Amino acid sequence: MDVPLLELRNICKRFGDTRALCDVSLTLQSGRNLALVGENGAGKSTLMKILSGVYQPDSGSILLDGQAVRLRDPRDARQRGISIIHQEFSLVPHLDVTDNLFLGREPTNRIGMSCRSAMRRQAQRVLDRLGATFSIDSIVARLGIAQQQFVEIAKALLGETRVLIMDEPTATLTVAETRRLLSIMRELVQQGVSIIFISHHLEEVFDVADDVLCLRDGARVGFGHSAELSQDELIRMMVGRDLNTTFPPAKAQIQGGVVLDVHALQRKSHLPTVSFQLRAGEILGLAGLVGSGRSKMVHALVGADRATQRELSLNQQRLSIRTTADARTAGIGLIPEDRKRQGLVLDASIRDNMVLASLKRLCHPVLRLIRRRAVVRATNQQAEQLRIKAASLSQLARALSGGNQQKIVLAKWLLADCQVLILDEPTRGIDIGAKGEIYQLLRELRNRGVAILLISSELPEVIGMSDRLMVMRNQRIEHTFESRLDINEEAVMNYAAGVPSA
């Protein structure tokens, strides 16, 4: 048998008292696509950071072409043909696309000067390869999240890459962009590039992967060829139990009265005015393509962005919101799309993050001192309910996986006991086991009378969870489905894309 392009043998890694990896082995042949799957906290990203030189293993070995190597740092890994696309962007916002692509590896001419024209030609070539529509001169800070993701992918494709590691690369992409990326992955494999692909979207795993390796609790628990695995088998391998992945059924329940009445919301004078109502005990879905204005609209609603007009009522009382503190005081919580920048204090502990929105409730009513026992009791209960995986709640939020970080943001607003909960892409980067738990939790909140506005780019999710559904296009509410019985994917996509009804 041919010598594998890459082998990891018995890799172990600990962070303090936390065992991240234990005796994990991996084999990758040239021109193969290996899917790495597992729940959040299973050790997937840690293993890939070891392979890309970010972390050093405590024990175990790495072999390239049958020869043992030590990957001292990411530059060393890149020089050996191993590139990684992290979940977290490593871009310099104030530089343009070309400068970001070549940062630290600028081509030079004979006298040592950087060759801008060569950089631009190569940058344009790799963007064309990806089918990107933005300019190589665009300032990265002005690009959307999906466009920034394509810049990261372009960076990885610039060098002589033999092993390309993709850690949740489709998490921020639209359906069309995802299809394009998966097509590129197939082309790269045909050209002899080996890919390790981390994804929580099992349909993508079965679409592009040749082989599947599963981790659970830092250990290897299964391996197989994707063509020989069923989705149910893979799910059992990931979570260690049978799991019903369908959306929990909505109970036949009379919806309560209007809690939040958005009479008129206008972000800028030249944009349309948005109006809608949100009732107690309902999940109101909000669908739309990237760029339709969903996130910006809710940011303006809660005072995170400016608005030229903001006329709201809460429980039939006029509401004045100028800042997010006003919204929080009124009982309106927002779980933002970008959890790292907008939802968390990464260098604060898990416990401190969880109580940020509920400190007033957890303080002594007279002395105004934080009741420490109440904080510990409340945060421990939420951590257990949401299955947050951490050595202790004193750990920094930065140290956790993306899925566990998202659970912390959710816990923060659950502790605040909001009347209105707005969730923007709440399951992005969440493993399939945790998704089911979050869906069930949203149903329970709905049944307790909480008014929920759910924004999601995943059509099965927003359709499966919504009692009513709004579709946004070009900064306006294009259509509202008043009954869940009327909602279907084709109709939603037609309104989102502006396709006339037949």
Indicate the low-confidence ranges by residue numbers.
Answer: none
Distance between the termini: 58 Å
Strand order of the largest sheet: 6-7-8-3-9-10
Q: Number of DSSP strands?
A: 20
How many helices? The count is: 17
Structural class label = alpha/beta
Oligomeric state: single chain
> What best-fitting shape do the alpha-carbon axes yield?
globular
Describe how the helices and strands are arranged.
Elements: E1 6-15, E2 18-28, E3 33-37, H1 44-51, E4 59-64, E5 67-69, H2 74-79, E6 82-85, H3 97-102, H4 116-130, H5 145-158, E7 163-167, H6 175-190, E8 194-198, H7 202-208, E9 211-216, E10 219-225, H8 231-239, E11 258-266, E12 274-279, E13 283-287, H9 294-301, E14 309-314, E15 317-319, H10 324-330, E16 332-335, H11 339-343, H12 350-354, H13 372-386, H14 402-415, E17 420-424, H15 432-447, E18 451-455, H16 459-465, E19 468-473, E20 476-481, H17 489-497
Parallel strand pairs: 3-8, 3-9, 6-7, 7-8, 13-18, 13-19, 16-17, 17-18
Antiparallel strand pairs: 1-2, 1-4, 4-5, 9-10, 11-12, 11-14, 14-15, 19-20
Helix pairs in contact: 4-5, 13-14
Descriptive labels:
502 residues, alpha/beta, six-stranded mixed β-sheet, 20 strands, globular
Write up what this structure looks like.
With 502 residues, the chain is an alpha/beta fold. It is built from 17 helices and 20 strands. The protein has a six-stranded mixed beta sheet, with helices on both faces. A six-stranded mixed beta sheet has the order 16-17-18-13-19-20, with helices on both faces. Strand 4 and strand 5 form a beta hairpin. Helix 4 crosses helix 5 and helix 13 packs across helix 14. The longest helix has 16 residues. The model has no long low-confidence stretch (mean pLDDT 86).
